[in-house]
Design brief:
Layout (H helix, E strand, L loop, with lengths): L1 E11 L4 E10 L2 E6 L9 E5 L4 E4 L1 E6 L12 H10 L2 E6 L10 H14 L3 E4 L15 H7 L4 E2 L8 H14 L3 E3 L4 H4 L4 E2 L2 H6 L3 E2 L1 H18 L3 E3 L5 H12 L4 E5 L1 H5 L21 H13 L4 E2 L8 H4 L16 H10 L6 H8 L1 H7 L14 E11 L18 E11 L2 E5 L6
Helix pairs in contact: 2-3, 4-7, 7-8, 8-10
The structure holds (4S)-2,6-dioxohexahydropyrimidine-4-carboxylic acid (DOR) and zinc ion.
The site of (4S)-2,6-dioxohexahydropyrimidine-4-carboxylic acid has 10 residues, from loops.
């Protein structure tokens, strides 16, 4: 069966073009992307995309699917359904599961489980160190052989510079990036929120911006020394943005991501003590948020990734100090990108889509994020004018831990297509 996506505006982040056109799909592949001529003949299913943007399937290079081990928080099945509902056709999942994805068996398990239960493509990330404990290197070559697309101890920083240096030498040899969670725990220890005016007002222990920034500096130095590709996860400070900017100017293979929560919210959101605002790195100051927006705009920040971190309601519904760090992100990401970045003119739709497709795909070295003829038919359809109020009760994720409940967002995914199959279609307002 063929599928024709008709009458939309094609957003091509590779050619950096936007134009009216149709997309023809057959046998799970993109056959042709046309500028208006009639692509179809024979028996064909039609998907009307008039007034909508037709983009390569979105790629989220930073999610926590929690399986194996934490199935009460999320599973590969529910997490990938949340991805589909959020417009994502590929996700890369972090290794802080139980057991940790620090060996072939867990990587293989995730891939098989995703093939069986996943609504979208899943690309596992292997641990840098055994148990993400920061001491012994994981069997990095084995992890790559089993299908890992990158290495990360996300949730933890690799504190020991010697360990990270050796990991970077291996990663360079293997041609895969290191994704670092940059946090100096000597500076962050015991902290709950950004250290600043609001931590003082609320009487909560602060995490200084320097906790992130010093580690970004160290990691860039080590990446230069080893020639390793370095990707900085969830950049939250103005200082980190500036260091990445300088590293790029020097020609180093350093890339960075920002999350929707770090460009949409400041630490003021913690007033009221909602545990759903507790995240690591923390929501930062207005000046940091401005710096992140500037970094997104000038290309310093290559990627928008969610750091989707589901937790069970009973874990989050406790006093601020005892709640785990993390918030869900897959089902609000596109709405926040359009509402906070595209509609206000910080990013044009092509740049926004590049940061959600081809840029993360290139960093991971996966053949996604393009609309080329012959590519897998993974596509996302976005209605830039559609508005809805965030209702966590409708999430496909098991996690309901979002600070965006009740927010009205404008610009939403309306259909998600994976391998030529429609895996999500927005039916009704609020759907
Ligand atoms: O808030 C966070 N939650 N930050 C992390 O680095 C880890 C994540 C998690 O796994 O819950
Ligand atoms: Zn994370």
């Amino acid at each position: 069966m063929k599928l024709l996506i008709k009458g939309g505006t094609i957003v091509d982040p590779v050619a950096r073009r936007m134009f009216p056109g149709d997309v023809l799909i057959s046998e799970g592949k993109i056959v042709a992307v046309g500028g208006g001529e009639n692509l179809a003949n024979g028996e064909i299913e039609l998907l009307d995309a008039s007034g909508k943007l037709v983009t390569p399937g979105l790629v989220d290079l930073h999610v926590h699917l929690r399986e194996p081990g934490f199935e009460a928080k999320e599973t590969i099945e529910t997490g990938t359904r949340a991805a589909a509902r959020g417009g994502f056709t590929s996700v890369a999942c972090m290794p802080n599961t139980n057991p940790v994805a620090d060996n072939k068996t867990v990587i293989t398990y995730i891939r098989l489980r995703a093939r069986e239960k996943g609504a979208v493509h899943v690309f596992p990330i292997g641990a840098i160190t055994a148990g993400c404990a920061g001491r012994e290197l994981a069997e990095m070559a084995d992890l790559k052989e089993a299908g890992a697309v990158a290495f990360s101890d996300d949730g933890h920083c690799v504190a020991d510079s010697g360990v990270l240096y050796r990991a970077m030498q291996y990663a360079r040899m293997l041609g895969l990036p290191i994704i670092e969670h940059c946090e100096d725990t000597g500076l962050s220890a015991g902290g709950l929120v950004h250290e600043g005016y609001f931590s003082t007002v609320l009487g909560l222990k602060g995490i200084p911006a320097a906790a992130e920034t010093v580690m970004v500096a160290r990691d860039i130095i080590l990446a230069e020394a080893t020639g390793c590709k370095l990707h900085i996860a969830h950049v939250s400070t103005a200082g980190a943005v500036e260091l990445v900017r300088q590293a790029k100017a020097k020609g180093l293979a350093v890339t960075a991501e920002a999350t929707p929560h770090h460009f949409s919210l400041t630490d003021e959101a913690v007033l009221g003590f909602d545990p759903n605002t507790k995240v690591n790195p923390p929501l930062r100051s207005a000046a940091d948020v401005q710096a992140i927006c500037a970094g997104l705009r000038d290309g310093t920040i290559d990627v928008i990734a969610t750091d989707h971190a589901p937790h069970a309601p009973e874990e989050k519904d406790v006093e601020y100090g005892n709640a785990p760090f993390g918030m869900v992100g897959l089902e609000t990401a596109v709405g926040l990108v359009w509402t906070k970045l595209v509609h206000p003119g910080i990013l044009d739709p092509i740049e926004a889509i590049a940061k959600l497709t081809i840029n993360p795909a290139r960093i991971l070295g996966i053949p996604k994020g393009t609309l080329e003829a012959g590519a897998d038919a993974d596509l996302t359809i976005i209605d830039p004018e559609l508005e809805a109020v965030v209702d966590p009760a409708r999430f496909a994720s098991k996690g309901r831990n979002t600070p965006f409940a009740g927010w009205r967002l404008k610009g939403l995914p309306v259909a998600t297509i994976v391998g030529g199959r429609v895996v999500y279609r927005r039916e009704a307002p609020g759907g």
